[in-house]
Write a structure and sequence with these properties.
Elements lengths: L8 E4 L5 H12 L3 E6 L3 H13 L3 E6 L5 H15 L4 E4 L14 H29 L3 E6 L3 H4 L5 H20 L4 E6 L16 H7 L10 H12 L10 E2 L9
Parallel strand pairs: 1-2, 1-4, 2-3, 4-5, 5-6, 6-7
The structure holds nicotinamide-adenine-dinucleotide.
Length: about 250
């Protein structure tokens, strides 16, 4: 255990696996008390809570579909009861969707935007409302994607949702300065369930590696950036987008 986030409380959405799991563990290892949000997999969320406890940290699991307002509000109530406040929000939950525009349905659009954009809006609004009321500042870190800049054929809905997350980030950073710092992380290809043949054709996964560092990144390589943005070293950083992306984007 290190102690840069000692006394801080954090919510990580979609934290039962992948990048969210790695961020939850990194924040807890640095001393934060962490709410591990899950939607469909309580057993995987409890595994994350156990892993954190074994490392000497403190965490609990909390269910919510981030796209559903009633579930989000109940989650924040539970966090208030359990943690007494919130200092750090990591808006990580998200889904990927592959499909040509001409075959995309309104239902596809709604499903993707509910998880990737409405979820960021609902959790961000509620967290910031509470941070403003608490009056002790706060950090919001939104997980976007390098595809939010790059665009990609057959990924237009996903790219649009992630581009919108970058715009929300910059706007909130201006609206809530100087007390609440809002930043984004736009990862490149990261080796999680999202990038397995069950979710993505193997030829796409191979294509993902065609970046300067010529490999997929690991969730921990995103978590280290989130830890920096949540911590004492990032007090002059807001409205920025960080890219643990192996060089896929060089703005
Ligand atoms: N893996 C990559 O290459 C990559 C690259 C760039 C950005 N991202 C982004 O990183 C984030 C994490 O993705 P990952 O790679 O760990 O994928 P993942 O599929 O392993 O994890 C996503 C998590 O979000 C949860 N989730 C999805 N919809 C939810 C909802 N409505 N409510 C609550 N939880 C929900 C899932 O249950 C899962 O735990 C996502 O926002 C994703 O778009 C991933």
């Amino acid at each position: 255990m290190t102690d840069g986030l000692d006394g801080k409380t954090a919510l990580v959405t979609g934290a039962s696996r992948g990048i969210g799991r790695a961020i939850a563990i990194a924040l807890a290892t640095d001393g934060a008390e962490v709410a591990v949000n899950y939607n469909k997999s309580p057993e995987r969320a409890y595994e994350v809570v156990d892993a954190i406890a074994k490392g000497g940290g403190s965490a609990f699991a909390v269910k919510a579909d981030v796209g559903q307002e009633d579930e989000v509000l109940s989650m924040f109530e539970a966090i208030g009861d359990r943690l007494g406040g919130l200092d750090i929000l990591i808006n990580n939950a998200g889904i990927e969707m592959i499909g040509p525009l001409l075959e995309s349905t309104n239902q596809d659009y709604d499903r993707l935007m509910d998880a990737n954009l409405r979820g960021v809006f609902l959790c961000g609004r509620e967290a910031i409302r509470r941070m403003v009321k608490q009056g002790r500042g706060g950090r919001v870190i939104n997980i976007s994607s390098d595809l939010g800049y790059l665009g990609r054929e057959d990924f237009s809905l996903y790219c649009a949702s992630k581009g919108a997350v970058l715009a929300l980030t910059r706007s909130w950073a201006k609206e809530f300065a100087p007390d609440i710092l809002v930043n984004a992380i736009a990862p490149g290809p990261i080796e999680t369930d999202m990038l397995t043949p069950a979710h993505m054709p193997p030829e796409w996964i191979e294509k993902e590696k065609q970046i300067p560092l010529a490999r997929l990144g690991q969730p921990e390589e995103v978590a280290s950036v989130a830890l920096f943005l949540a911590g004492p070293g990032a007090t002059f950083v807001t409205g920025q987008t960080f890219g643990p992306n192996g060089g896929s984007v060089m703005p």
